[in-house]
Amino acid sequence: MIDVKDLTEEQAKAELLSLATEIAKADNAYYQNDDPYLTDAEYDALKHRNFDIEARFPHLVRADSPSKRVGAPLQSAFKKIRHRVPMLSLADIFSEEELVEFVESVRRFLNTDSEIEMTAEPKMDGLSFSARYENGVLVSGATRGDGITGEDITENLKTIAGLPHKVTAPDFPKLIEMRGEVYMSKADFFALNEKNEALHKKPFANPRNAAAGSLRQLDPNITRERKLSLLVYTWGEISEILWTSQSEFLAKAEAWGFPVNPYNKLCRTVADVVQSYETLAQTRADLPYDIDGIVYKVNSLALQNRLGFLTRTPRWAIAHKFPAEKAITRIENIRVQVGRTGALTPVADLEPVNVGGVIVSHATLHNEDEIKRKDIRLGDYVTIQRAGDVIPQVLGVVLEKRPSDSTPYEFPTHCPECGAHAIREEDEAVRRCTGGLSCPAQAIERLKHFVSREAFNIEGLGSKIIEQFFEEGILRKPADIFTLEARNGGDDLFSTAQGLHLENREGWGEKSAANLFQAIRNRRRITLPRFIYALGIRQVGEATSLLIAKNYGSFQNFSSKMQADDVEKLLSIDGIGQAMAKDIVEFFKEEHNLQTLSELLKYVEVEPFEDTTNYASPISGKTVVFTGTLERMTRAEAKAKAAALGAKVAGSVSAHTDYVIVGAEAGSKAKKAQELGVAMLTESEFLELIGKGV
Ligand code: IVH
């Protein structure tokens, strides 16, 4: 990058334009789509560069300069609202035994043998909100945030049908915060994703994310367009409590005109409590929205008061989470997919089956050995499981239903896409196609990887489009992406070549084509870690790419050392072993890879890497694990932050873990940390530790 003091006026002008575009795009991803793609550090670097150039050339400051935009701090564009009564979370349990134990512990605490009345309420899988009414008028609304401070979403909340803006009932408290959950129904979620797909936008992973993304919109008109729903289930700050139990509150809330879940139940005995779980678990798939468990609350407020609170959770309530959902269905076909590195992955096509409200028609079979181990055959009935967003898994075969004429599955020895030999190297679980880039499946997957979010992050080049463009010969290799715009117009009087004219294709228009070209232009300069990751070298993921960038500084340096077979430094890097080093060196030995690279580097400038890691930070050298849902940053941001401060970010908890940062609804990792006595931090405590607390 040219030093600001050496920039010519011409260069400065051009760069201010590209910075304005780039920052606006990053802002948009962060604020509008809840889907940031830059780390805080990358974003700050852009802002600083913009500031420095503007300081030297004040007369070039643009009308749309990012420095002129008011507010827009990276933390959040929403005003903060402090909850005078904190919004707490609930402890989780996962089994009937734990449920019975919970009721017992309540009894022991209260020193009674009598039955304890409890409400059983579906645990809505959305985002909690708090709506404040003064003299019957809705005056403000907030998200939960970290439980103490939330975001001001008053105007957004007002757009949600069903939430009264005014309540005139004589028994409505003068001051009350009505609290509950904002969610998106399954039907509205599918419709929204379909719409997004048609617009080449990334679909939301699940209704919960869609609800979050829709509610946290700076423009409430966008929230209004998305169909959100809400339910209330508790209250916060209040002038006076005019009821003596939770069930009485729920009845009043309904009478005041608030949406209340019709599946809420009052249980008089432990047997009722257990029964309510069974009943709801069975109804779950038929509900029009996602629930992830049941919340049990001691009904009597007097008893609730006696029971009180643990640090962050009430002793009078608990969340019983549903286990991963299962179903039985038949394997109609076993297909073998070919991945980016030629790995053959078997996938089962299933007779479609409803698993917890989601229709499942495929499941992964992992690899050859897994099929053998479970003896999975065509036509078998199998038990499948779906947990959260992950691809459904086959747990096992229902042998009683196996057809008498069935034969063991034989794994192909040739690539189903290109016919090349598929071989299994010693010690490897996967069989790989040897076709390399002459195998269309591998070439397509490499392109998809190249443009993916963590790599070049080119919006507008989704999987479907890559496949189409590949088949038509429009895109065959990475460099083709960067000549797309030049090839688009093309058909002038002196040339016989016809332009591509993407804007005339079905599903495209002037705007979407222009957006794509802009997105591609924005990526002509790229950070070193992203570039290395984008190459798709076997075993080299994001973390390794970063390590390589840190240790080699520039792509030129890295590539020349690799081509000279100089692996000494590579092997000295903590985190890079023999096998990985071999894959890396082999990549640079392949003629077609070198050709791809040299062609690509004609269009792309790879920034040298500056190590900005803060080795003096309090978490430098520590191993940290994140679990649960974070409220103030995305998981990716949190990880990036920790890494920038010199921490090692691990995926699972072990005795070597120094800190586990526990977000909302954390599961087994938090439990494991507790068992191992590993220090646990809330998100706020973590931010405080690294000096970004409020
Ligand atoms: S009561 C002090 N009731 O679950 C109790 N929460 O793990 C406050 N949730 O943050 C919560 N349905 O977002 C309660 N019927 C229900 C609920 C419910 C969903 C969510 C809520 C809360 C989380 C706690």
Task: Please tell me about this protein's structure.
With about 700 residues, this protein is of the alpha+beta class. The protein contains 24 helices and 24 strands. The protein has a five-stranded mixed sheet with strand order 2-11-10-3-9. A five-stranded antiparallel sheet has the order 14-13-12-15-16. Strand 13 and strand 14 form a beta hairpin. Helix 12 (about 440-450) packs across helix 13 and helix 16 crosses helix 17 (about 540-550). The site of 2-(butylsulfanyl)adenosine has 16 residues, from strand 3, strand 8 and strand 11.
Secondary structure elements and their pairing?
Layout: H1 9-32, H2 40-56, E1 80-82, E2 92-93, H3 96-110, E3 118-124, E4 127-134, E5 137-143, E6 149-151, H4 154-158, E7 175-183, H5 186-198, H6 207-215, H7 220-225, E8 229-238, H8 246-255, E9 265-267, H9 270-283, E10 291-298, H10 301-307, E11 317-321, E12 325-338, E13 344-355, E14 358-364, H11 368-374, E15 381-386, E16 393-397, E17 422-423, E18 432-433, H12 440-451, H13 463-471, H14 478-488, H15 510-522, E19 525-526, H16 528-534, H17 542-552, H18 555-563, H19 568-572, H20 578-589, H21 591-600, E20 605-606, E21 623-627, H22 635-644, E22 648-650, E23 659-662, H23 668-676, E24 679-682, H24 683-689
Parallel strand pairs: 2-11, 19-20, 21-22, 21-23, 23-24
Antiparallel strand pairs: 1-6, 3-9, 3-10, 4-5, 4-7, 7-8, 10-11, 12-13, 12-15, 13-14, 15-16, 17-18
Helix pairs in contact: 1-2, 12-13, 16-17
The chain binds 2-(butylsulfanyl)adenosine (IVH).
